[in-house]
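Single-chain item
Fold in token form
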Amino acid sequence: METVKVLIIEDDDGLNRGISFALEQDGYEAVCAETLQEGYSLFEKEKPDAVILDLNLPDGDGIDFCKKIRRLSGERAGIPIVMLTARDMETDEIMGLTSGADDYITKPFSVSVLKIRLQNILSRKAVSGTIVSGEGAREADHRITSGEVVLDTKTLRAFCKEQELDLSMTEFRLLQYFLENKNRALLKEQILQHIWDADGNYVEENTLSVNISRLRKKLDGNYIRTIQGIGYLWEEKA
């Protein structure tokens, strides 16, 4: 699966770095800017898959950036944009959304909520395959199947019994890891290292079990078997 690149345009250095770190922990690639001018330049140079945009910037208004992007032609005009702002007036939210933003989040906010909203937007936008593209690959190369579960790494969508699953990026990566290791016992440490941190600096102890529980529930309790004291196994049935 190709990495999803997100451009963050936020003049608060601490918040900028915090969002960047959180996204990278979930497998995104983050590109950061603190001004509109720098944001425009990186947008052209890096060709991001999504933009997280502050409304108030030192050299201008995020709404102007949003309108400019929406005036482009082709796929770039439809890039997902999440707008951040300290303004909490309803009129400001309306202005942000009517300028072309896909979502609008008022500060202070939870980074976890931001990630979920971003992933939901990416999933909706990926219907035509414009968010993550494979070069010269056949459609079948992007799909992994197991029983009634189908995962598409090109559009970042997953289905069970022909119904689309509403997955977070972490749940999607977890599902992909299981499908790539069908009928193999995976140690808890293996999963933590692959999904969260290759350096071994793992998250809270119950994070894995919580995410497994959520994914299992969305799969109607099937496929994922707990191996007591060891880890988990994706049990592919005939």
